[in-house]
Specification:
Elements lengths: L1 H43 L3 H19 L7 H22 L8
Length: about 100
Amino acid sequence: MQQFHGQRFSFQRLTDSLSQLSYNNIKLVNVVAESKKLTDSLKENKNLPELFRMISSFIQLVSMKYKEEPGSDAQEYINYAEDVNIHAVTPVSIIVPSEAFKP
């Protein structure tokens, strides 16, 4: 009788694990579908590379004008803007054809 009780417990744990695995698989399928929709949307957006080019140009203009200003926090802000721009362009350039991001 003792062994039967242990087997029932193991079966219940297995059933619970399978239920959780099934639930996680459904969630994963939904996440993948949403990711594909987002990727397709980014690929269809023809203005995105131009937007990043405009942002980069603006950051360069601001940098040229304010980088030598003494006692200013301008360079810190410019460096931050450049980092943000790089971190935004990199993942998008993987999704959108890379030739679109060439200057």
